[in-house]
Protein 1
Amino acid sequence: MQFVLRLRPDLHHLLDRVESGIAKSGDYDFETIQAFSTYFHETVHWWQHSGSISGLILSLTYPSQAHINHAELKRYIELTGPVKSIAAYNRLNAKEVNPGDEEFKTINVILNNFHDIEFFKYRVIVPGTARQFSLDPLFESVGHSFFIAYSSFINLLSSCFDRELEFLPKADEWHKGFRDLSDNKVDGYFYGSNIELPSVGLKDIYEGQARFSQLQYLYFAYGGNLTWDDFDEMGMLSGVYYRAFSSFLELTESERPESIDSPLVALFLLVLDLAMNPSDGFPFEIMHYESFIESVDPGIRFMFLCRMVALRHPELKGYITEYSSSEYFEASKLLSDAIVCPSPLESASLISEWSENKPSLIKLMEEESTFDFSDENQPIRLIFSRFIRYQKDKLKNPAFFCWPGVYAAGTKCSEAGLRLFNEHEALFKDKPDGDIYPRVFPDKNKELVQVAFDKFYSWVATYDLCRQWIINDGDFSYDYWWLTSKYSMDELEAWASSHFEFVFGVKPQNFKVVADL
C-alpha cells in the first residue's frame, strides 16, 4: 500500500490551471472539468481509505501485519537467524506438526497472524477470492480471519492510545466469544464451515461511490444537461463502477431513474456510506458474536440495507430531494435501525467524544494540528488523527460527505464546501514527474509537514520489507522508485534498510535466502 493519490501527467497539466481547488462550471472548458472530475473521483477514494471505518481498518492492516508479529519476528531472528522468506523456510523444514518446538511455534504464529489478516482483506475487498484462499491450509474460517483482523487493529490502536482499553472495545476478551462459536460449530466460525459470499464487495462499493459522486459533480457542473446516455458514451457506466448500482436496483426492486439528480441515486450513495461504515468491534463493542460477520462485512451490509429499503422503507426511494444533513440523519437512522446497528453518525459522535475527552487523543489532535507527530508509531498516529478529523467534520456536515458531487458544483457549491474539500484532500500526491510529495497546508509549517512525510514513508518501506521477509521468496527488493526518482537504487536500498535495521536490529543485506542455504 502506497498511501498516495496519483494522476496521469496530462491531467496534472490541465489541473494546474485550477486555482480554487474545485473546478466550477463556466470557469473552465470541458476538458478541464473532465480532468477535475477524475481528481474528484480519486479524492473520494482517499476519503474512503482515510475517513471511513472500513477504510481505516484496511489501511491499518498493512502496518498491523508487521506490528502484531514484531515480538515473534525478533524471536525468529534469535531462534532461526536472519533467514528469508519465513514461508519458504517453513515449507522446507516443517514436515510435521511439532507444537513443543519453539521455532515451530514462533513461525506458526507469524504465518497465521499474517495470513489471517490477508484472508480478511481479500474476503472483504473481492469476496469471490474466498473460493481460492479457502483452499489454503492456513485458512481456518471467515469468522476467525475477521476476529484476528479486528483484534489486531484494536491492539494496534490500544498500543498507541489506550493500553488499558479504557475506551476502545475490549478486544482482549473477544477470544472467548469466538472460541465458543468455533466449539459450537456455528457456520462461518469453525474450520471447514460454509462460506457465504455477498454479490458485491468493498471494491464495488468504493468504486460505485467514487464514480457516482463524480457523475453528480459532472451533472451539476453542466447545469443538469448530461444524461445517462451521455455518461454511457463516456464509458463511465460499466464494470466495477456500475456493479453496485446495478445490484442496488435489483435488491431494492427499483428501475433506473430518469436522471442522476434523483432521490433514488441519492439513496444509493447513502446506502454505500452506511455499508462501508460498520460499528461493531469499532468504535462500539461487539453486540452479538454470532452475527459479527454480517454486522461488519460491507458487502453483506450493503445487501441487507438494500433489502430493508424494499421490504420496510420503500418510502426512502423518493425521500432525499434536498441533499440535506437532516435527510441524511433521518434516512441513515431508519436503515441502521432496520439492520440493528448504530448509524455512522452515532459512530462519529463517539469518536468525536473520545477526541475531546481522552488525554491521549487530545494530545494526538494537537500533533495533527501542527503535523508535528511523535516518532513512536508515527504512521498510526498520522492515519488515526486524520480519520478523527474526518469523522468530526462528517458529524457536522454529513450531507457534504455523502453527496460531495452535489456540493462541488451547481447551486450548493459554497465557500464552506470548498474549505471542507481542501481540508480533506489527499496528504500525499504525485506530480507530473511521477514522484510523491506532501500536500501544502496553508495553516501548517512546511518543514514539519516534510518531516512527517519522510518519517511516514520510512515506516511504509519497513512494512514492505517485513512483508517480503515473511512471504516473498528470493532477495529483498528495494524498488521504491514509485516514491521518488531522484535517488539511485543503492541510495534507496541504504535508506530503506537503515530503518528496517532500527526496528529489527539486523540489516536486510545480512539475511540468508532459503534457496541459498
Protein 2
Amino acid sequence: MLANTLYLTFHGIGAPIVPPAEGELKYFVSPDVFRQTVDMLDGLEEQIRVQAHVTFDDGNLSDYVIGLPSLIEHNRKGIFFVLAGRIGQKGYLSAGQIREIAAAGMLIGTHGHDHVDWRRLDAAGAERELVTARRKIEDELGSPVTYASVPFGRFDRPLLRRLRALGYERVFTSSMSLALDNTWFCPRRSLTETFDPATGLMPLVGLDERVRSVAYAAARRLRYRW
C-alpha cells in the first residue's frame, strides 16, 4: 500500500492586505503560482494516480477573491479552514463570503479562534479554540463543521485525543508528507513564496515519497495513539 493523497496548503495568495505575523509572509504565493498549481493537478492525478486536494488556512480574503474562482474554473473542490475570531475583519473572509464558498460546493473547516498553539491551551482556552470557534462557524454556515486544521501544524498526543473525542471527522496538520486514503490524520504540504509548480509539484508525489509517507504514518500512529 502506498500513500496516494496529496493535500496542498495555501495561506495567502498575492500581497497581504494586512501585515502578516512574523514568519508568515513567506507563505503568501503569487496568483500565478497558485493558478498554475491548480491547473496542473488534473494531469498530476492522471499521470501518477494520486488524489490531489487544495486547502486554505487562516481565512484570508484572497481565498475568496482568487482561490475560489480558480477552483470553480477547474471543477475542483477545496477545503477552507477559517479562524472564527477574524471573520469580518479587514483582509479576512466575511460571514457572507464563507457561506458563498460553501454554497459553491467547498468544505469549510475550523482553524480555531485566534491562531494560537493548541498544545498550550488551558481549559478555558481549549473551550474557546476547539468548541466555541467551531460553533461560531457552524452558526454562520447553518451546517456542521467536522474538519479541523491545527495552527502551526503543532500537535501532541493529548491534543489529537481531544480532537478525536470532540468528534472531528478529519484533522489536518502540516506534517509535510502524503496522506493515506480516507485517514483521520491528514498531513499536508504548505507551499511558500519560492515554490515553482513546474519543477516542485511532481517530486511531492514521487514513488519514494509515497513509500516514505506510509512509514511516517505508521510511526505517527504508534507514537501518538489517537
